[in-house]
Amino acid sequence: MELDPLLIARWQFGITTVYHYWMVPLTIGLGPILVGMQARWVRTGREIYLRMTKFWGKIFLINFIMGVATGIVQEFQFGLAWSEYSRFVGDVFGAPLAMEGMLAFFFESIFLGLWIFGWDRLPRRLHLFMLCGAVLASVLSAYFIIVANSWMQHPVGAELIDGRAVLTDIVAVLTNNTALAAFAHAICGAAAVGAGVVVGVSWYHLWRRRHDGIDTVDATGRVVVGQAPEIAGRDRLDHSMWLRSLRIGAVVGILAFGSVALTGDELGKLMYEQQPLKMASAEGACHTGTSFSVLTIGNLGSESCDDITTVIEIPGILSFLAKGDFTTDVPGINDLLPVYQALYGETYPDDAAYGDYAGQEIDYLPVLEVTYWGFRFMIGFGAAAAGVCVLTLWLTRKGTVPASRWMMRLAVLSIGASFAANTAGWVFTEMGRQPFVVVPNQESNNAIFMFTAAAVSPGVSGGELLFSVCAFTVLYATMLVVELFLMVRYVRGGAASGMPSLEHPLDDDHHAPPGAAGTSTASKEGEDYVLESAF
Length: 535
Hints:
The protein has 535 residues and is mostly helical. It is 65% helix and 6% strand.
């Protein structure tokens, strides 16, 4: 059986991109939380914030390093499997990708290096500034990447010259309305991921303290904080650290979900204007109207409205999502397909660049099950993660988490909900624009577009691509094992894994200076617990 290079190339890019993206939102989302923790330590000098900064900083660094390693592979694929695509977009992509590499990633690495090695060497405020610089650079890095991706979704600031997109207005590219909306949406989604990790890990440690008998509850259900001197870091301050982290994560998670909903609504309205067929397929809207599909069923891999049936729908909601009212008819799939065929042709050009696809009929409708359920998984998993945050605030109002093991496992598993929501969103975004790799700008410039069938490297065989997919899969699987091992090891180690000095606490005759690693006095513990209860 002959292997299809295009299909394998798409699988390869999809697998490596999704895996890499798992690292990105955690780095971006955890960064601002970490800055807030260190800022509180610099301002107050209280050890609780030093412990929080050290522990979450270690998780941040492990994830950042793995993200860099997995991201490098993305660069190779443009030349390996997508050379025709690179030739087409190279002039436009060069600017934002150069900015990402030189202005963002370069400074991110410098600031992060100074933060890592600057403990006890740099003044506290300057050391905090290094972390702020690294976090800001990571956000800028995401912005430039999203600018490049959004140009594929909505090309602006370029002209088609000799079969290539040539940059004519860098400001238009950087201020692309699709990029601005997608960036805001992605940052809010990343904040939800960072918050989910903080909530899940903190819940585990509070539960562990109860499981080990360190903390108990009184007759009213309020926590009675204990300590276990024989276990590194398991003192009264340890309880405050995890409870405060838990509540910070829960509040951030709730705010993040609300922001995701608002930015998602704006992004969805833009998609209805710029990629109407993508959004119609996401809603399972076969016919023009106002109704939103709550549940639509169809055959596996449905690629035709003839294969699907709407079970539950709500009138007016589709109009609100697309136009902001409840009465405007929104074009459905059956009405949009003839428009696309009239504008861009019914068959691929009879050109060698299209390989085996030359002259074949163009299927403008993306796989309905992917777009329909991807859209709903994005919303559903995001709502589930926010629900866990709300439940967390309620259940910990008396100072600790329930002793239930299954609730602890549920809280830890909920970490995956925000990751799943982000992943589903990107799968929907990228799969929904098929059969285009660069979607035509229907508002102003229909000339600049590229079919995915013409983007793959012509000199690479299906067998070669299959080998690279297998190689990348083995490499990424190995890296996944390494990251999970490191994450689990340091998470289980608790505060002591971020501050090894807690394994050898100073006795009453050898106090460390205030705010230094290892300080753990009874008065400070009492102060932190009183303030924690007030919080």
